[in-house]
């Protein structure tokens, strides 16, 4: 379980707080989604958790343990970060990239051992991308890259997985595929997954819990069907929406000012 | 296929070294070369002393070995620098490390003859790389073009300092200093070989054991941190040790550019970018390449052309080729 308690953060030399009294918890085996407009502080929150931004006020507890004082090495054994953009300077193979996930367990003056190789291979198999093993990472598709990075995070064997906008470069199918994988991994491997998304529909489809954030403040938190209502979404994004329900699925779509849906604009006159 | 290429790269210095031993103004039979060397190591053939033996053992062998060690040191540190700076266009020469080391050597010979040349070379090489690093590191991560530019600036600065030393120094010592600017193995003997070997060993051995880390360090700084790497500390360790190897190499043979840029590329193209394999194979390929360049430099004309000229003649076009090939990417972040 990850507990964030009364977290305040601002950048050095700046007046305004970016995170203001943020508190929430996430649970094991569950996928928690942070939803919020651009600049609301989602990435900043992640960077506080992973120790890139320090110091902050408040506390972050991973399974009850305060992580403030941990070194990067100790953190890497607790949190696996899946970066959004990732362009290695050299054309490593997919397997090389996944093996890098073992870095926290490999000594400074040594190389991965047979156990590390096995873990990396297993991670590829679990994500169903073993056939990509020897392909150069820079020559596979965006969706495949995201799966490779997930495999790397899995090889890292950290109980918490942090993913900042894992779907932003993906097509429709891959968005669904990647989020399904994340949700399944969390459940089957007993991980705690924390994901930021921009699409309220994807969030409502996949999240076990949603945390709505705006201007560094938490606006609401809870199960998607409980908190995602028309009013709240308008409050957060400033867009009027309508929510329709069908077979237990909820679809959120915007009400456009000009009713130009499905029609060319000149037809309105 | 990859394995075959790797084996080829591993044994290339032996084959090219052997060829280098029988080529030269004084022709020696290739088999005789083997016989002389086996005799020297195992004392099997009871060969009598001869001109051939003297040429091979006292002149050519130390020169070939020295070229090999220097080639390995330069391309090994090229791999390190390219890896930690995530920049395929750098090497110890471009980043000004060689020039810093040459200045350390020049002032030692010129003004402080009782000091250790290698120590001064090391100190000024470190100073040079630190300058390059901090000039390039304006904000957060170091991007490619600023790094190369600051390397060029630092290199020019130290070469200018060497010129001042040349100007001030007593003419007898001038020749030795000129030597450091040209890059040549013509003064190789067993003594310089020992120094170079020791420097390469101390400098490259820790890097050898850390070679897989280069895969992690070649990611963005933030990403490497999230994988538990103490980026600053590990970069520092790698820079200090590889600079030691470069400084010793420069102290025995002067500034030899480009090889640290070319060899890692050629090896990467052959067996891929995984540093676990790339680093050791760049050592052997670098040795082979340098022996080859030196052999060309001493056999192509009747003079002993400084080998630095040969490497520059191949290196500069190679750099252009990389730029063209990499296009925008090569200049980008
Ligand atoms: N290095 C920095 N220094 C100062 N301010 C920063 C820095 N990085 C981000 N900010 C500010 O912090 C605020 C939150 O940014 P953050 O990147 O956390 O938002 P986000 O929710 O991840 O947005 P997006 O959805 O666009 O990724 C923004 O107002 C941004 O301008
Ligand atoms: Mg963000």
Features:
heterodimer; A: 269 residues; alpha/beta; six-stranded mixed beta sheet; four-stranded antiparallel beta sheet; globular; B: 333 residues; mainly alpha; ABC transporter involved in vitamin B12 uptake, BtuC; 0% strand; binds adenosine-5'-triphosphate; binds magnesium ion
Topology:
The complex is a heterodimer of chains A (269) and B (333).
Chain A: E1 2-9, E2 19-26, E3 31-35, H1 42-49, E4 57-62, E5 65-66, H2 72-76, E6 79-82, H3 94-100, H4 114-126, H5 142-155, E7 160-164, H6 172-189, E8 192-197, H7 200-206, E9 209-214, E10 217-222, H8 224-227, H9 230-237, E11 241-246, E12 249-254
Parallel strand pairs in A: 3-8, 3-9, 6-7, 7-8
Antiparallel strand pairs in A: 1-2, 1-4, 4-5, 9-10, 11-12
Chain B: H1 2-22, H2 30-42, H3 51-84, H4 97-111, H5 117-136, H6 144-168, H7 171-182, H8 190-209, H9 213-217, H10 221-226, H11 231-253, H12 259-271, H13 275-299, H14 307-326, H15 328-331
The structure holds adenosine-5'-triphosphate (ATP) and magnesium ion (MG).
The site of adenosine-5'-triphosphate has 10 residues of chain A, from helix 1.
Average of per-residue pLDDT values of chain A: 92
In CATH, what is the homologous superfamily of chain A? Answer: P-loop containing nucleotide triphosphate hydrolases
The number of helical segments of chain A is 9
Bound ligands, named by name, code or SMILES: adenosine-5'-triphosphate, magnesium ion
- Topology-level CATH name of chain B: ABC transporter involved in vitamin B12 uptake, BtuC
Average pLDDT over all residues of chain B: 91
Number of helices of chain B: 15
The strands making up the biggest β-sheet of chain A line up spatially as 6-7-8-3-9-10
Summarize the main sheet of chain A.
Answer: 6 strands, mixed
**Gyration radius of chain A, rounded:** 20 Å
| pLDDT < 50 runs, ≥5 residues of chain B | none
* Pair with the biggest interface: A-B, 33 and 29 residues
CATH architecture of chain A: 3-Layer(aba) Sandwich
């Amino acid at each position: 379980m990850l507990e964030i308690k009364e977290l305040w953060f601002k950048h050095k030399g700046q007046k305004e707080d970016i995170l203001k009294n943020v508190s929430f918890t996430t649970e094991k085996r569950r996928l928690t989604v942070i939803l919020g407009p651009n600049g609301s502080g989602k990435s900043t929150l992640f960077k506080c958790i992973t120790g890139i931004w320090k110091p902050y006020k408040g506390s972050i507890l991973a399974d009850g343990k305060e992580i403030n004082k941990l070194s990067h090495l100790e953190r890497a054994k607790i949190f696996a970060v899946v970066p959004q953009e990732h362009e290695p300077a050299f054309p490593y193979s997919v397997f090389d990239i996944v093996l890098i996930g073992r870095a926290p367990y490999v000594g400074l003056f040594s190389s991965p051992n047979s156990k590390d190789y096995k873990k990396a291979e297993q991670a590829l198999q679990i994500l169903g991308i073993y056939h990509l093993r020897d392909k150069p990472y820079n020559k596979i598709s965006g969706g495949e890259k995201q799966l490779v990075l997930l495999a790397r995070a899995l090889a890292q064997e950290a109980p918490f997985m942090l993913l900042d906008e894992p779907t932003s470069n993906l097509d429709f199918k891959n968005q669904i595929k990647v989020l399904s994988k994340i949700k399944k991994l969390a459940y089957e491997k007993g991980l705690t997954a924390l994901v930021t998304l921009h699409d309220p529909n994807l969030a409502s489809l996949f999240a076990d819990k949603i945390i709505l954030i705006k201007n560094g403040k938490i606006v609401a938190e809870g199960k998607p069907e409980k908190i995602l209502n028309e009013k709240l979404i308008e409050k957060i994004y400033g867009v009027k929406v309508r929510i329709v329900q069908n077979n237990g699925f909820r679809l959120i779509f915007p009400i456009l000012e000009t009713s130009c849906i499905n029609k060319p604009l000149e037809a309105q006159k | 296929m990859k394995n075959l290429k790797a084996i080829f790269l591993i044994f290339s210095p032996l084959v090219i070294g052997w060829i280098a031993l029988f080529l030269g103004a004084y022709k020696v039979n290739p088999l005789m070369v083997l016989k002389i060397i086996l005799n020297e190591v195992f004392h099997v053939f009871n060969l009598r002393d001869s001109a051939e033996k003297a040429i091979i053992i006292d002149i050519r062998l130390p020169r070939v070995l020295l070229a090999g060690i220097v080639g390995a040191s330069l391309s090994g540190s090229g791999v390190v620098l390219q890896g930690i700076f995530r920049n395929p266009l750098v090497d110890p020469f471009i980043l000004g490390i060689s020039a810093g080391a040459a200045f350390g050597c020049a002032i030692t010979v010129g003004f402080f003859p009782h000091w250790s040349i290698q120590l001064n070379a090391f100190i000024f090489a470190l100073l040079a790389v630190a300058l390059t690093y901090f000039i390039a590191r304006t904000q957060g991560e170091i991007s490619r073009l600023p790094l190369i530019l600051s390397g060029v600036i630092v290199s020019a600065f130290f070469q200018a300092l060497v010129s001042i030393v040349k100007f001030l120094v007593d003419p007898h010592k001038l020749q030795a200093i000129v030597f450091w600017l040209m890059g040549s193995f013509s003064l190789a003997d067993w003594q310089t070989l020992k120094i170079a070997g020791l420097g390469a060993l101390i400098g490259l051995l820790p890097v050898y054991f850390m070679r897989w880390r280069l895969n992690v360090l070649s990611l963005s700084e933030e990403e490497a941190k999230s994988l538990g790497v103490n980026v600053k500390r590990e970069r520092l360790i790698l820079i200090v040790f590889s600079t030691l190897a470069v400084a010793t190499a420069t102290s025995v043979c002067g500034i030899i550019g480009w090889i640290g840029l070319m060899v890692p590329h050629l090896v990467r193209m052959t067996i891929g970018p995984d540093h676990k394999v790339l680093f050791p194979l760049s050592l052997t390929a670098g040795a082979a390449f340098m022996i080859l360049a030196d052999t060309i430099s001493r056999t192509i004309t009747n003079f002993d052309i400084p080998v630095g000229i040969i490497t520059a003649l191949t290196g500069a076009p190679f750099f252009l080729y990389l730029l063209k090939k990499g296009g925008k990417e090569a200049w980008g972040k």
